[in-house]
Design brief:
The complex is a heterodimer. Chain A is about 85% helix and about 0% strand. By secondary structure, chain A is mainly α. Chain B contains twelve helices and four strands, in the order αααααβββαααβαααα. The chains are: A mainly alpha, B mainly alpha.
Chain lengths: ~80, ~475
């Protein structure tokens, strides 16, 4: 196998592995939104407060997944 | 059937679908080149008065600012001067709804003494990021641009021939649907152009050598003339002429190796230019110059039969990978833009903290007050330091959250337009909402952190918040 293909292979595998981190973000967002929807259902008057906090929590959970995405993008497009 | 098509303009959707089918059949979708940093425009597209080349994300942000300023002018002009006047309708109401709704929203989170500052910051960031994010939905953005082949010829020692590779040095292979993709990072220089530049350098070097020689000869002639002049005209012309000559050419005579130095300088500049290109990661052209050891001249006879600048409509054009360097790219896919807004947001958080709490704001980070008073004082110190680190981490998470979301979104749109060129609309709807949510999250987090910065540890100003509600 020539070195160029090896580099592509390594990049692809590395980027794929890095994206495993997105699973954590997904679980986190699911839990946060699930909890928020339950709370809103029980307590519709507090919907604005709950929504705000939910968006905050979702943003934080998502940030972790985004870090994984950025790492894999860097592996794919910046490393050479 | 008739009632289904009447009035609702559904035929537009059908026409778009059919147009999509025909276009996809006629022009096979090109897989886009994906590049993280903003792509530089070709040579000659400098920002006026600076030496900086335009990048397509920069063009995008200029458009965002111009459009936003137009909105500001529009709203300021349409806004009723008198409070009782009924505002004019139309587009203006959109802004009223937006501002009133978001004012209530932010008031619920950060209502208090600093509401105005926080809301101004919130709204500015929200509008800028929203405009930037929605740009990816505009047709033509990311798709219309300079198109150029992105190949070079590389000498293959094993087969003793030149083969076409991308400028990154990757082999060109026919990928899915026979399409391959390459990058717009390096300006493409053909081997012929390189050779021409080398020739030009040699010509310039000999010209410089000739010029240096001429200067030397002139100097010698002048020195001879001066010597004669001095010897001859002591009495005839007086001091004026002689004194002038001494001023202009009073230095020591130039060395004779100036000639070779002058030409070597020109050649070295050319070599340095080639090396700078290589250092940038652009492996185009020939690395060595003709006057250097190990020079491999470009041999046209060994080249493959593919022209490097084929006619786009010809058959051989299908073998060459083409690249679009879009005129406009979504500015939030460039780290420069997101990082800038994140830094502004960070500075404003610290500013409002100092404004609200004075120098006491620093005790949030350097909390040594309780170190010797309470048994748990050490924990306070550690918490303060963690807050300090966390504050700087905000810059990182702010900028990368926006960048990652929007960059991933535009790649999603690219790839979906490539895979299903006739029906990518659902993803545009998805990206519409992602754009709003990301703008809202960015602005909302800024507002929340600004509000948190105004609240002291000791809950001194809780009454402020009671007033607000």
């Amino acid at each position: 196998m020539d070195p160029q293909s090896t580099i592509i292979l390594g990049k692809a595998i590395g980027a794929g592995l890095a994206m495993i981190g997105a699973a954590g973000g997904g679980i986190g967002i699911g839990l946060a939104v699930g909890g928020a929807v339950q709370a809103m259902g029980r307590n519709p008057d507090h919907t604005p407060t709950i929504q705000t906090n939910m968006i905050l929590g979702v943003a934080f959970a998502e940030a972790v997944a985004i870090y994984a995405l950025v790492v894999s993008l860097i592996i794919l497009f910046v490393l050479s | 059937m008739n009632s289904f098509w009447n009035g609702k303009r559904r035929f537009v959707a059908l026409l778009m679908f059919l147009a999509g089918v025909f276009v996809a059949l006629e022009v096979p979708p090109v897989i886009p080149f994906i590049q993280l940093p903003g792509e530089k425009f070709p040579e000659g597209f400098d920002i006026p008065l600076t030496g900086i080349r335009w990048t397509n994300t920069m063009v995008g942000s200029v458009i965002v600012w111009v459009v936003l300023l137009l909105f500001v002018v529009y709203v300021a002009r349409r806004r009723p001067k008198d409070g009782n006047e009924v505002p004019p309708g139309g587009f203006y109401y959109l802004f009223e709804v937006l501002f009133e709704g978001l004012m209530g929203f932010v008031g619920g989170i950060a209502g208090g003494r600093h509401f105005r500052v926080i809301f101004n910051m919130f709204m500015t960031i929200f509008l800028v990021v929203l405009m930037a994010n929605w740009m990816e939905l505009v047709p033509g953005v990311d798709t219309i641009g300079f198109i150029h082949p992105h190949v070079k010829e590389k000498y293959d020692a094993q087969k003793d021939e030149y083969k076409l590779v991308t400028t990154d040095g990757y082999e060109i292979y026919q990928g899915f649907l026979g399409i391959s993709y390459v990058n717009g990072q390096c300006d493409w220089i053909s081997p012929a152009a390189e050779a021409a530049a080398d020739e030009a350098a040699i010509v310039a070097a000999s010209a410089a050598a000739a010029a240096a020689e001429r200067t030397l000869t002139q100097d010698a002639a002048y020195a001879r003339y001066q010597a004669e002049h001095k010897g001859h005209g002591d009495d005839a012309t007086g001091e004026g002429g002689g004194g002038h000559g001494d001023d202009a050419h009073g230095e020591e005579p130039l060395e004779s190796n100036t000639v070779s130095l002058a030409s070597a300088e020109v050649l070295a500049a050319r070599v340095a230019e080639k090396q700078a290109r290589l250092d940038r990661g652009c492996h185009t052209g020939v690395a060595t110059a003709p006057w250097q050891d190990g020079y491999e001249p470009y041999d046209k006879s060994k080249a493959k039969g593919i022209s490097l600048h084929p006619d786009p409509s010809s058959e051989e054009a299908k073998l060459v990978p083409w690249v679009v360097l879009p005129f406009v790219r979504v500015p939030s896919t460039d780290l420069n833009m997101t990082l800038t807004i994140a830094l502004i947001s960070f500075v404003m958080i610290q500013y409002i903290g100092f404004k609200a709490l004075g120098i006491g704001y620093l005790t949030k980070f350097f909390n040594f007050g309780t170190l010797f008073k309470s048994p748990l004082g050490g924990i306070d110190v550690a918490v303060g330091l963690l807050e300090l680190i966390g504050d700087f981490a905000k810059i990182l998470s702010f900028s990368f959250r926006l960048l990652g979301n929007i960059f991933a979104g535009s790649i999603l749109l690219f790839v979906m337009s490539f895979l299903i060129p006739i029906l990518p609309w659902p993803f545009f709807i998805l990206e519409f909402f992602v754009g709003v949510i990301q703008a809202l999250v960015f602005a909302l987090l800024t507002a929340i952190f600004m509000n948190l910065a105004t609240i002291s540890h000791h809950h001194d100003d809780d009454h402020d918040h009671d007033e607000a509600h």
